[in-house]
Amino acid sequence: MSREREKILIRNASQVVTCSGFAAKKGTEMSDVGIIEDGAVVIENGIITQVGTTEEVLKQLDINDYLEIDARGRAVLPGFVDSHTHFVFGGYREEEFSWRMKGDSYMSIMERGGGIVSTMQATRRIRYDHLYDMAYDRLDTMMDMGVTTVEGKSGYGLDLSTELIQLRLMNELNEEHPVDVIPTFMGAHAVPPEFKGRTDEYIDYIIETVLPSIRSEHCAVFCDVFCEQGVFSIEQSERLLKAARSYRLKLKLHADEIVSLGGAELAVKMKAVSADHLLHVSDAGIKRLAQSNTIATLLPLTAFSLGEPYAPARKMIDAGCAVALASDFNPGSCFSCSVPLLFSLACIQMKMSPEEALTALTINGAAAVGRANKIGSIDVGKKADMILLQFPSYKFLPYHVGMNIVGTVIKDGMLYIV
Ligand code: NIG
Ligand code: FE
């Protein structure tokens, strides 16, 4: 990737797809992506200052001051927001993948002491600079696919010091890598071996020992919990989330991923910003989500990687939910952050329209990280986080299956050629 200067005029774009909005889009609103044909966008100091047709914008601009990008034959879109990842981890779990292909299940591997705890062991052992370099490279990979904001979870430390290391690392990356990184504390990702069989005591430990340090360092924005049968129950999750809320963290939940436990309902009750996974969400859960401001974040790459049924995206959107899409990139259930594949799975397997999928990865992704007022759409005043495709329409995203068609990324008004 190479980088160029800041005051930019993009003109003659075959389409500027604004995804305009300052809050999540729900239900039928998700189809409204806002297309400007022969579009132009002006960027100054990293902020979008004008959006319109090329003719309109050129009328009121002294083009000599600007780096001009002729976007003929190309579509201009907001940068993607990957609102659910676990990208900071040591080690890999390729053996587990082979076991699963032979019929082992994700949960049975976890019960045998593999799974998240195996990545915890590798993450506790790894040198900081190695962990940092790998995470940095992963952000590069995501940015090449058009991602300009990433949420990242801790949860591979499962003790105070290693959880803090993961969170500090994400804060450092937020400063040092062009992609914006939003750190989420997920100490309740699994029960570590030193608390085996004492899940309630582990929750006490998080509440009494870990959360106060996170609060005093201000190193996390969200708190998330793996609310799942055999991991953290509804009651344990609620107790933890209430404590997290009292420490001013915003809330997220891994909800109804493996069984229908009522995680979606708990997310709504706790006013969580998002409920994620939802492969086995109940009809009652869908109804509650539709009536709430909680975003339903769907992760089709995980369902695909685990060979599980997809979340009922169609049913949720038709019921009026605000749906976001994210990768869930992690070394276990989903070792992929592929935006191209994510798009195609959302459309081909979950029957989302290309417009709904685009909304889900832009403005609704932004809402899922509490930033819909700053990113997620091409609106005047928002951050200049944008992408230029190699094709004239956003419709090529799911259609060109599994292919990266992002040609240029603009992050905070800086130009990066992929
Ligand atoms: O979202 N389900 C829990 N957490 C991750 C998996 C993490 C791992 O297996 O390392 C998920 O799928
Ligand atoms: Fe996850």
Automatic annotation (TrEMBL):
Pathway involvement of the protein, from the record: Amino-acid degradation; L-histidine degradation into L-glutamate; N-formimidoyl-L-glutamate from L-histidine: step 3/3
Subcellular location: Cytoplasm
InterPro entries noted in UniProt: Amidohydro-rel (IPR006680), HutI (IPR005920), Metal-dep_hydrolase_composite (IPR011059), Metal_Hydrolase (IPR032466)
Cofactor: Zn(2+); Fe(3+)
The record's free-text note on cofactor binding: Binds 1 zinc or iron ion per subunit.
Binding site for 4-imidazolone-5-propanoate: 93, 156, 189, 257, 333
GO MF entry, a single one: imidazolonepropionase activity
UniProt entry tagged with the keyword RNA-binding: no
Binding of Fe(3+), residues: 84, 86, 254, 328
Binding, N-formimidoyl-L-glutamate: 156, 330, 332
EC number: 3.5.2.7
Top-level enzyme category: hydrolase
Similarity comment: Belongs to the metallo-dependent hydrolases superfamily. HutI family.
Function: Catalyzes the hydrolytic cleavage of the carbon-nitrogen bond in imidazolone-5-propanoate to yield N-formimidoyl-L-glutamate. It is the third step in the universal histidine degradation pathway.
Protein name in the entry: Imidazolonepropionase
Gene name as annotated: hutI
